[in-house]
Please model this.
Amino acid sequence: MTSDQKAPVCVLGAGLIGGSLLRAAADAGYRVWGYNRSESGVLAAMADGFDVTDDLQTALTRAAEADALIVIAVPMPAVDHLLGAIATFAAECALTDVVSVKGPVLAAAHAHGLSRRYVGGHPMAGTSESGWSATDSGLFRDAVWAVGVDPGTHARTWTRVARLALDCGAVVVPVTAEDHDHAVARISHLPHVLAEALAIAGAGGGPLALGLAAGSFRDGTRVAATAPDLVRAICEPNRDALLTVLDDMLTVLGAARDNLREQGSLVDLIAAGHDGRMAYETAERWEITDIRPGDHEWLERMRDAGRRGGVCTALA
Amino acid sequence: MTSDQKAPVCVLGAGLIGGSLLRAAADAGYRVWGYNRSESGVLAAMADGFDVTDDLQTALTRAAEADALIVIAVPMPAVDHLLGAIATFAAECALTDVVSVKGPVLAAAHAHGLSRRYVGGHPMAGTSESGWSATDSGLFRDAVWAVGVDPGTHARTWTRVARLALDCGAVVVPVTAEDHDHAVARISHLPHVLAEALAIAGAGGGPLALGLAAGSFRDGTRVAATAPDLVRAICEPNRDALLTVLDDMLTVLGAARDNLREQGSLVDLIAAGHDGRMAYETAERWEITDIRPGDHEWLERMRDAGRRGGVCTALA
Model:
């Protein structure tokens, strides 16, 4: 795979994640360029010395010529448009993305005839800020980066995507699109929904309640500061998985409400919640060292290792 | 009021809040001593040079002799026992507390014949840690400290409590017990309940989901790391107000679930949640300067000012 080491990278979208990826990949020695729709984003990136254009065709033609890895780094609603352009101008390029949901991107890549070269990705990093001004070359350091191991995944493309993630300072979690979307419904999309609901509850108490609010409210509502359109673009495409965990959440909270009303007790909720937080705090990543991309049943083995908490920290 | 300046303070309970108060008051020049039930807590405080005993009668007799301000700093379930001892050994002392709920403490003080000298307090500060080892003299710096303005509140005792809060670095929010309990149900107890429920949802996703969890899950579940008994002691005594906001929360989340299922949209939730968080981030405290404790209708005026976001940062 040495020929793929530090092959060029073309990033489509120079917002928080895409822009931070441009920075991190450049720092890691990759040749990088990008596309951004808004002129203000292009100018901001150029002012910082990055090769970013608002001409999608130019960026993609260059990717095709250089056999670059293309990274889709826009919210889900803008993905289809980019895939159409990629199918036209750079259909043979290796392709990944950093979108917050994986099933819909995989389906869209398939619809555009691009699934053969596509390996989904999702760095679990971000802030409530957005846009080029929020970009940070260290955003992915020590983060986990989900990389797809769906049936049919091409080993060489997978390695190229995983290498980029590792070179940006992340560790790689191998995961199928379906597993990913169910997991992030629990640990990313549901937290967003609860943060919004909690912010509504706090504001309903007026200046007194907001004035008394301290750490638990501040932390519990932090991500509600994220731009509303972005939160919608993150959560709504994962509708089915999010509905499942929202139904579970309503059941858990309804039971807690009933217990509080009838027995004056929240013991079941609090005991289980504490156990859950302890499981999170004590969860240990372990290193996947015995599975080489392309080996017999490597996709199934990677998937199973990821489900058990395994991560890749290096490539063979 | 000069005679009350830095009058002695007796703190009952040397956990996170009581112990931090011992430290902060000592740093501010107060003569302080305390009581703690567990010998390990007593030894830890003594090892740091603090005058803490496990003999409640001794601590209270000394408070009576020195006309100290007594501060109840134990979880709600232990309050009644302390009030009984105070009624026996130090019934004439000024009395406050730092308990997370105010109505039940006020009612208990009344039941013990101590309400005449009692002014409720609640510093809005804490961490998910507990015990003497977590104490910090800076815990109250720039925090808000709710101080009761219920009907019948004694102006001189109020001033003494407010002065202690200010000297510990906090600002004072004047609030009735009922208003306080409704407000903290929204901005403290509900965040605890949601953090527990979110931790349950995350852990339900197993090692994969917990391994992918990043900032939104970490922050949203932070307070679920708090000792379960302490969370129960914080939330359960505020049952009625918490039930009201829990019912509201179930309505809001249920509507969001229905909208997501039927329209694929979370727009209403996310727009209102973002507005709520912005209201929190932009809320401005203003200084109450024109109300002097003891003035005509000072309690009603203080209450109204607190409802509108007013704080006391100094005493006349």
